[in-house]
């Protein structure tokens, strides 16, 4: 997968994609991530990327021209209908579709080229949404100062689902949300720490019993913290 991030703060991304699974996926050629400065595509002599809102009101709005020019530079077109198959242009904004694991999975499965537009200020000129954007995505019901942290969250959640990104020793199958439940608790050595013992069932090597215990604990955690994830009868 190729990911192009459009931002007015390219330095924000520093080394954020240079650790752990994302770093390994980059080195293995599973994902390529490029950061682009929207300001480089600004046309006027002051390289402006924002302006006052028509109709008045607080704050500034991101101008359409630099964003259109950046997408055109990357895709050769600024018409959604002309995007190659597997190409998505996502705008990170609090107005977007809530980012949940099924959406991450759908994007991981069907996207070869992802362009992320990080909004700032009061928002982005709506013509960007009307013409360029295939997916408007929010990472939660709170307002960030900009789409950059949200882009990091989206890229991280996406890359770990790409084929071979996790390697053979780990898998995303038991991650929280992948089966509609939160993940179960985990323990490692020592078996006793400051008087706190690891549950006996995990030490006895009975895999059927361990699986049953893990499912029960996952259910318990989900009921306690995220009852909304469970069906009407409280069981998946
Ligand atoms: N930009 C500002 N707030 C955001 C949010 N919650 N999700 C995605 N992008 C944002």
CATH superfamily of the largest domain: SPOUT methyltransferase, trefoil knot domain
Total strands: 9
Which structural class do you get from the secondary structure elements? Answer: alpha/beta
- List ligands, each type once: adenine
**Sheet with the most strands?**
5 strands, parallel
Which fold name is given in CATH as the topology of the largest domain? Alpha/beta knot
- How far apart the termini lie comes to 33 Å
Q: What's the overall average pLDDT, rounded?
A: 95
Give me the Rg, rounded.
22 Å
Percent range for helical residues? 25-40%
What is the CATH architecture descriptor of the largest domain?
3-Layer(aba) Sandwich
Overview of this structure, please?
This protein is of the alpha/beta class and 236 residues long. The chain folds into two domains: 2-159, 3-Layer(aba) Sandwich (Alpha/beta knot); 176-229, Trp Operon Repressor, Chain A (Orthogonal Bundle). 28% of the residues lie in helices and 18% in strands. The chain contains six helices and nine strands. The strands form three sheets. A five-stranded parallel beta sheet has the order 2-1-6-5-7. Strands 3-4 form a two-stranded antiparallel sheet. A hairpin with a 2-residue loop joins strand 8 and strand 9 (196-197). Helix 3 (101-110) packs across helix 5. The radius of gyration is 22 Å and the shape is elongated. 24% of the residues are buried. The mean pLDDT is 95. The structure holds adenine. Adenine (ADE) binds at residues 92-94, 119, 138-140, 142-144, 146-147, 150.
């Amino acid at each position: 997968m190729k990911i192009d991030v459009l931002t007015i703060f390219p330095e924000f991304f520093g080394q954020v994609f240079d650790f752990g699974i994302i770093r390994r996926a980059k080195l293995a050629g599973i994902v390529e991530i490029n950061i682009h400065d929207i300001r480089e595509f600004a046309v006027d002599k002051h390289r402006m990327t924002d302006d006052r809102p028509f109709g008045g009101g607080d704050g500034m709005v991101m101008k359409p021209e630099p964003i259109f020019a950046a997408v055109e530079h990357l895709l050769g077109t600024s018409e959604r209908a002309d995007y190659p198959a597997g190409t998505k242009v996502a705008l990170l904004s609090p107005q977007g579709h809530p980012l949940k694991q099924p959406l991450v999975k759908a994007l991981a499965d069907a996207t070869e080229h992802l362009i992320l537009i990080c909004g700032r200020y009061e928002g982005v000129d709506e013509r960007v949404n009307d013409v360029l954007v295939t997916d408007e995505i929010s990472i939660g019901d709170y307002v960030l100062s900009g789409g950059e942290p949200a882009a990091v969250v989206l890229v991280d959640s996406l890359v770990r689902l790409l084929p071979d990104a996790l390697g053979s020793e780990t898998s995303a199958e038991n991650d929280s949300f992948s089966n509609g439940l939160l993940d179960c608790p985990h323990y490692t050595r020592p078996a006793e720490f400051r008087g706190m013992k690891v549950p006996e069932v995990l030490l006895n090597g009975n895999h059927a019993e361990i699986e049953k215990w893990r499912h029960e604990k996952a259910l318990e955690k989900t009921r306690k913290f995220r009852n909304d994830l469970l069906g009407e009868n409280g069981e998946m």
